[in-house]
Design brief:
Length: 391
């Protein structure tokens, strides 16, 4: 085996430009696949971290009728806070929020909006709720940057909101925008306005009630509470997992095309090599090599392309991948338009498993592709091969 590797290396180096062209193409596949997979892993990590920081914390209880995708459930999505959780709420370990449907009238226009009541002193979310803890002539409110752009509202602007209370009576009041925040989670930003929880309870005549209870720390299990549905972080981030899975399948097709082009070059090189080196093959057999050993020699020679490609890709790809991990990849279009948790700049994450698995897959595929044309050697007549007769 050691001799086969030595001979294969000499033959590859002796082939000159043809070898290096194959190696460069293959090394490009290494770098691109690892970079793109790193982007997907980084996106997954960032999206889940942002959702925990801005929306879901360490898990939630939802009032049993609450469905964030069905606004018609909001009028019924409220219930008294369970007494078993009162102490945790007092300690700031659980943040209750009340969600009701309403209408907002910016510049005389009418637009549906979800009014979210939240404690201004909460510390679980990154929302700047402390900006609602102020004395103004109207109800202090905060909105996201996308909502601000859509509604054409700025800080210190007054706007009217309308709601229907628990008794079915419509009412309206003015709010003043005290802050505009920016976040990467569209469901926190788009179509929502945040006001103090106690004020919203007073407006809705829902004293001591809530729609969502969010925990600070993630726990493997939570007790079942009548009238509430427990949602752990895995459930709440399932949409991200499904999206990443869908994107990964799409990317796999791109990887396959990239590998196919590289393997086509390796296959052609092997076929050409066997065609032009028939005398050499005959000499090997005359010297005592078995056909199996000669096939192994040519297979090692082909597979060695991937080893050299891994080395070359490490030389120029490693600095590039490290730089991308620090600088990130900025999306060419506005990420908020995707309607999903996505930062404008994605930072790839490369794990040892990702790099090793990518290298092993490419080496394995290259070996198989190299072996495929080499099987022809087993059918060659060594005497004819020594004479240089084409077979």
């Amino acid at each position: 085996m050691k001799l086969a590797i030595k001979l294969a290396y000499r033959n590859l180096i002796g082939a000159g430009l043809r070898t290096w062209l194959n190696v460069i193409v293959l090394s490009f596949s290494f770098v691109v696949i690892i970079w793109m997979k790193g982007i997907m892993v980084g996106w997954d990590h960032q999206a889940k971290t942002d959702m925990k920081n801005w929306e879901i914390g360490g898990g939630q209880y939802w009032q049993k009728d609450y469905d964030p995708y069905d606004p018609f459930t909001l009028p019924e999505s409220h219930a008294a806070i369970p007494t078993a959780l009162i102490n945790e709420i007092s300690n700031g370990e659980i943040v209750p929020s009340l969600v009701v449907s309403g209408t907002i009238y910016p510049q005389g226009r009418m637009q549906s909006i979800a009014i979210v009541g939240m404690n201004p002193h909460q510390s679980i979310f990154m929302l700047p709720t402390e900006k609602m803890d102020t004395t103004t002539s109207a109800i202090p409110a905060i909105i996201g940057s996308v909502a601000s752009r859509n509604l054409k509202l700025n800080v210190s602007d007054y706007v009217t909101i309308r709601w229907r209370n628990v008794n079915g009576m419509f009412d309206a009041t003015d709010v003043i925008i005290t802050d505009i925040f920016s976040c990467n989670v569209p469901s926190v930003d788009v179509g929502k306005i945040y006001i103090p929880l106690e004020k919203l309870r007073e407006m809705m005549s829902l004293k001591g009630e809530a729609t969502i209870l969010t925990f600070r720390e993630e726990q493997s299990e939570r007790p079942e509470i009548a009238g509430w549905s427990y949602k752990n972080t895995a459930t709440l981030t399932q949409s991200v997992d499904e999206l990443i899975q869908t994107k990964t399948v799409g990317q796999s097709i791109f990887y396959a095309i990239l590998l196919l082009l590289a393997m086509l070059a390796i296959f052609d090189t092997q076929v050409l090599s066997i065609f032009r080196r028939q005398k050499e093959i005959g000499t090997y057999i005359a010297l005592g090599y078995t056909r199996k050993e000669v096939v192994g020699l040519f297979t090692v020679e082909g597979a060695m392309h991937s080893i050299l490609a891994a080395i070359v890709s490490a030389i120029y790809g490693l600095p590039f991948l490290i730089w991308m991990a620090k600088a990130g990849w900025t999306m060419p279009i506005e990420a908020s338009e995707f309607g999903m948790a996505m930062a404008q700049t994605l930072y790839p994450v490369y794990s040892a498993g990702l790099v090793i698995s990518t290298v092993l897959i490419i080496v394995l595929v290259t070996t198989v592709v190299s072996y495929w044309p080499s099987r022809k050697i087993a059918k060659m007549n060594p005497t004819e091969a020594l004479r240089g007769k084409l077979q």
